[in-house]
UniProtKB/TrEMBL annotation, chain A:
The lineage of its organism: Eukaryota, Metazoa, Chordata, Craniata, Vertebrata. It comes from the Eukaryota. CDD domains: AAT_like. This is 1-aminocyclopropane-1-carboxylate synthase homolog (inactive) like. Pfam families: Aminotran_1_2 (PF00155). The gene is ACCSL. GO terms for biological process: amino acid metabolic process. It comes from Aotus nancymaae.
TrEMBL record, chain B:
Pfam families: Aminotran_1_2 (PF00155). InterPro entries: Aminotransferase_I/II_large, Ethylene_sulfur-biosynth, PyrdxlP-dep_Trfase, PyrdxlP-dep_Trfase_major, PyrdxlP-dep_Trfase_small. GO terms for biological process: amino acid metabolic process. This is 1-aminocyclopropane-1-carboxylate synthase-like protein 1. Keywords: Pyridoxal phosphate. Belongs to the class-I pyridoxal-phosphate-dependent aminotransferase family. Residues 121-457 form the Aminotransferase class I/classII large domain. The keyword Protease does not apply. The lineage of its organism: Eukaryota, Metazoa, Chordata, Craniata, Vertebrata. It comes from Aotus nancymaae. Does not catalyze the synthesis of 1-aminocyclopropane-1-carboxylate but is capable of catalyzing the deamination of L-vinylglycine. One of its GO terms (molecular function) is identical protein binding. Signal peptide: none annotated.
Length: 567, 494
């Protein structure tokens, strides 16, 4: 670690050559590390080639572990050096948690399956550890995955189970509705669900089987209260809403072009636009504070949209559209039809497409509130540029089904998105099941939805009561599977680094949440907590939640004491 | 796989980038497997006319317009075919499809197996977000399955398996994570032409062709033989044109040749790739559809020692071998964990339902059924269908290639083209279609010699008979212009 002192930041009077020297030291370090890794690899390869088969496997395993360990140590070292070289004197890189999960790494934005971190901070040295076999964009994708799914994978390997694994992870981070699995399982096991027809096993219409598109059109006409029957030809069915978004981004934007998104915003689409389409998401930052122009927290106004658009255009960005999520994720709120109309008019004024994600439309559990789907509007300001996305993952709690649908009045867009059908196709057998599910409106209306709403309401009530008792401010009145909570008071200083540390602390207590940074939230300290889980698990999760906050509070007090003594 | 009449359109170069445009330009003729013939007739207003790519009236981005334009060509043909699909009762004069490579011989067996009670299992985790690599239980079964059926010398590992919704998705994901935009894979032609679209649509990766000849010359022992010399030459050529080649794609058993690579050949190609630090993607999607034992097929996973295991990536799927192209299941096997992880991170977009994953695991683990029921019956039926079509061809004096793997025969109709041009190939193809039989023409496989066609024979006997009858009619009306066909050996003919 003799380089370390060289790499530490120099006082403000430093010269240009010193900066350059520091940079070159950093570069050298990287080179050294790369070299080291290469040497290790070659060494291991040599080692392995000498072993017998069985022995080799055991040996390889040991070597892999060793290599992983070394890599991690080196990576940590460089990270420290790097942060020392670029940051302030204080080293703000969180260290790896001390528990034994070896694939949980440090200092990274975290998100779960449904919602990856939109802005991962991949350090160069980390990229250096990814093999040279990948292309640059491959490395980018690899890193994004590592950042996004590590904790989720840790959860997958060590899930809580009430008998078998009481110390396992509880996941209140991934937006999944686990409250109605009993109903869904029963429904899916009915005899109409299982069908093996020749056509289902052969190449499909890549837009989705006609029978399913017809059913989706009927379903949306009814549940979105469309003024006129929707047209199956305007429906494209793919294996998930992220796929739909990805295909839309491909056909509406050229690489480098952008969409506006009000933040906090669902991170999964950031992932989509970045991985394949290379489309930028420009945040329209909303604020929690109530002011003259902000009549409620995180309010989206046309002024803010105009401002963000202007700013983006001044920076030379080519903005092609606006992405809205309604009901909102993570805010759990819905747009009034008036506001929605204003946003749509704003978009029309600037020739922007509007992609509106209504994936939580049937998860509005407060019956006093009416949700207005964009498809219910009598006259859309710009029909040809309004594209709606819906899927069964949230409203029916079947994210494992992989189904997402696009509805657009624009046949040109529908046809262009269809070109992606064969890369995002759904099994014929699954399409049959989905069709059966969607067409049974009697079961949906009389059994599923009332029960689902009731259970969501109860779970919401339980969690919010706990939050109130802890005096934690939160946001969510009516819809979705989550509450958006403010843990600022547990952060000192209130920074994203501290937010990350608190997130880690939850993780150490085997509780997964998602933190605000993953939603491009501008203010540190916000977390999203999923409440759509069974009560026993939810209770335990809330107990762990309270424990963490208590621990955090004690630490804060101790820290303040220390500071006081030092003064 | 279907075919499209060639028409030399110039797409706007601003669209997908010049590299891609060029590639699509030359090879759009082949399309998504399962798409159908794009009958690019005069009657398609606007379609295929570059004028429609004008941005004035479009809501799409320029790449979106480009994508849509190609898709419309496909879509139009798709509709043409499906509007007039042959049906024994309802539409006996409809189009018979010898173009799409699907196995329609074993639906009875499959539907029975898929309807058994073990297939209907349901548990909560199947309804929730999966491990994006595929559920562990499925990856374990895939590893076991491949170990057994590929005759791997060591047990294959579940962590090297990634499961996706089809081979197309896998090509797309691999292209994206192995190549930068504009870089290329080598591929010997004739080849399954849809691959160009798979690697290009998202990945903007191109293909560098290794053109093979039907004529047996030099050290070659059979038509369209791939040799290391030809690979070296194509690689040099690509480099001299400034194209960076990142890998080699091999399809084994080969599509459309119906042949297989010997283990020695395979080894040579792999050594070549290692020498140049190229990745090798080996597509073995027809590995269980080798219906003549004498063929001696060997999976790349059966080799004692891979020259460059970190750069060797194997693909398999149930579409062909289990005749379930609509099920959307494919798998990658690679020892390279970085590649596996990078592909897995794209699986958010290429995932398949948990219930289907469960069913696939059940299917793949049922070796008794596969070995004792499915494979023997499937092979017997394939062999019978192959025998019927090849005897028909022989009776017509038409040379062809097909050794006993895959669903197709690669047919030499050069004697029916007086001038031997691709225009004539197209005209002949259209004549077949006018007589209600759909074939795929050689240009769609980037075959450099005009006059080759792919006949898919894995269909029910009554449809085969009718289709061959229609083929005969077309050829009879045309055969008077025949010259002496070049002699071609048919190793599978005996």
């Amino acid at each position: 670690m003799s380089h370390r002192s060289d790499a530490l930041p120099v006082p403000s009077g430093q010269t240009r050559s010193q900066v350059l020297r520091d940079q070159s030291i950093y570069t050298q370090l990287l080179e050294v590390t790369r070299h080291l890794q290469q040497t290790m690899r070659e060494h291991f390869v040599q080692l392995m080639s000498r072993q017998g088969l069985l022995q080799e496997r055991r040996h390889t395993q040991a070597i892999r572990e060793q290599e992983a360990l070394l890599s991690r140590l080196l990576c940590q070292m460089i990270n420290l050096l790097q942060s020392g070289a670029t940051g302030g004197l204080e080293l703000q890189v969180p260290l790896p948690s001390k528990d034994s999960r070896d694939d949980v790494r440090y200092g990274q934005g975290t998100q779960l399956s449904g919602q990856p971190d939109p802005v991962p901070q991949l350090s160069d040295c980390e990229a250096a550890f990814v093999s040279r076999d990948l292309s640059n964009r491959g490395i980018d994708i690899y890193a994004l995955y590592q950042l996004s799914f590590q904790d989720y994978n840790a959860y997958q390997k060590d899930k809580y189970h009430k008998d078998k694994n009481t110390l396992g992870f509880i996941n209140l981070g991934t937006s999944e509705n686990k409250l109605c699995i009993d109903l869904m399982a029963e429904r899916l096991q009915e005899s109409d669900m299982n069908c093996v027809e020749e056509a289902l096993l052969q190449y499909p219409d890549w837009r989705g089987q006609p029978f399913l598109r017809e059913e989706v059109a009927r379903f949306l006409t009814y549940y979105c209260r469309a003024p006129a029957p929707l047209d199956p030809e305007n429906v494209v069915v793919l294996n998930g809403c992220c796929s739909v978004f990805s295909a839309l981004a491909m056909v509406l934007c050229d690489p480098g072009e952008a969409f506006l998104v009000p933040t906090p915003f669902y991170g999964g689409f950031a992932f989509s636009s970045r991985l394949y389409a290379k489309v930028e998401l420009i945040p329209v930052h909303l604020e929690s504070k109530i002011t003259a122009i902000n009549t409620y927290p995180f309010q989206l106004t046309v002024d803010k949209l105009e401002e963000a658009l202007l700013e983006a255009r001044l920076e030379g960005k080519n903005v092609r559209g606006l992405v809205l999520t309604n009901p909102q994720n993570p805010l759990g709120d819905i747009y009034s039809s008036d506001s929605l109309m204003k946003y749509l008019e704003f978009a029309k004024r600037h020739d922007l497409h509007v992609i509106i994600d209504e994936i939580y439309m049937l998860s509005v559990f407060d019956e006093s509130i009416t949700f207005h789907s964009v498809l219910s509007m009598k006259s859309l300001p710009d029909r040809s540029r309004t594209h709606m996305i819906w899927g069964t993952s949230k409203d029916f709690g079947i994210s494992g089904f992989r189904f997402g649908a696009l509805y657009t009045h624009n046949k040109e867009v529908a046809s262009a998105v269809s070109a992606f059908g064969y890369l995002h196709s759904i099994s014929g057998i699954t399409q049959h099941k989905l069709c059966q599910l969607l067409q049974n409106t009697e079961w949906i209306d009389k059994v599923y939805l009332p029960t689902n709403r009731f259970r969501l309401r109860e779970a919401h009530k339980y969690v919010t009561a706990k939050l109130k008792a802890l005096e934690i401010p939160f946001h969510n009145r009516s819809s979705g599977l989550y509450v958006w909570i403010n843990l600022k008071k547990y952060l000192d200083p209130c920074t994203f680094e501290e937010e990350q540390l608190l997130y880690r602390r939850f993780l150490d207590h085997k509780l997964l949440l998602s933190c605000g940074k993953a939603y491009m939230c501008k203010e540190p300290g916000w977390f999203r907590l999923i409440f759509a889980d069974e009560l026993p698990r939810l209770k335990l999760a809330m107990r762990r939640f309270c424990d963490v906050l208590e621990e955090q509070k004690q630490d804060l007090i101790a820290k303040q004491l220390e500071d006081a003594i030092r003064e | 796989m279907f075919t499209l009449p060639q028409k030399n359109f110039r797409a706007p170069t601003t669209c997908l980038g010049p590299t891609c445009t060029q590639d699509l330009d030359g090879s759009h003729g082949d399309d998504l497997e399962g798409e159908c013939s794009r009958k690019l007739d005069q009657k398609l207003p606007g379609v295929g006319d570059p004028a429609t790519l004008s941005s004035d009236t479009s809501y799409l981005s320029s790449r979106g317009r480009m994508i849509k334009w190609f898709w419309d060509l496909a879509e139009e043909g798709y509709r043409t075919y499906h509007m007039d699909e042959y049906d024994e009762d309802k539409n006996p004069s409809g189009i018979i499809n010898f173009g799409t490579s699907e196995n329609k011989l074993c639906f009875d067996l499959l539907s029975r197996r898929l309807s058994q009670s073990d297939m209907q299992w349901l548990e909560p985790s199947l309804l929730q977000y999966p491990d994006w690599r595929g559920h562990l239980f499925l990856r374990e079964e895939v590893a076991k399955f491949l170990t057994f059926y590929c005759k791997s010398p060591v047990p294959l590992k579940p962590e090297n398996v990634v499961v996706l919704n089809g081979g197309a998705s896998l090509f797309s994901a691999l292209a994206t994570v192995l190549c930068e935009a504009g870089e290329a894979f080598l591929i010997p032609t004739p080849y399954y032409g849809a691959i160009i679209q798979h690697v290009c649509l998202y990945g903007n990766v191109r293909l560098a062709y290794v053109y093979l000849d039907s004529e047996v010359t030099g050290l070659d022992t059979r038509p369209f033989q791939l040799t290391v010399e030809k690979l070296e030459m194509a690689l040099r050529e690509a480099y001299s044109e400034g194209v960076k080649v990142k890998g080699l794609i091999l399809i084994n058993p080969q599509n459309p040749l119906g042949d297989v690579y010997s283990p020695e050949e395979l080894q040579e190609y792999l050594v070549f790739a290692k020498r140049h630090k190229l990745h090798v993607i080996v597509d073995e999607v027809y590995m269980l559809s080798v219906f003549k034992e004498s063929v001696g097929y060997r999976s790349v996973l059966s080799l004692e020692r891979l020259p460059d295991p970190q750069r060797t990536h194997v693909m398999w799927a149930t579409s062909k071998d289990f005749g379930m192209s609509g099920l959307r299941f494919a798998t990658l096997y690679t020892e390279n964990q970085d590649v596996a992880t990078a592909v897995a991170s794209l699986c958010r977009y290429h995932g398949l339902s948990g219930l289907v994953q469960y069913q696939m695991a059940q299917l793949l683990q049922d070796h008794d059924w596969i070995n004792q029921v499915y494979l023997p019956e499937n092979h017997a039926r394939l062999k019978a269908a192959h025998t019927y079509v090849s005897e028909e061809l022989r009776a017509l004096g038409i040379p062809f290639l097909s050794r006993g793997a895959g669903f197709f025969i690669w047919v030499d109709l050069r004697k029916y083209l007086p001038k031997g041009t691709f225009e004539e190939e197209m005209q002949l193809w259209r004549r077949f279609l006018d007589n209600k039989v759909l074939l795929s023409f050689g240009k769609a496989f980037e075959c450099k010699e005009p006059g080759w066609f792919r006949f898919v024979f894995s269909d029910q006997a009554h449809r085969l008979r009718l289709g061959m009858q229609r083929v005969r009619q077309v050829l009879a009306g045309k055969s008077q212009v025949a010259e002496d066909p070049p002699s071609l050996s048919d190793p599978g003919a005996k």
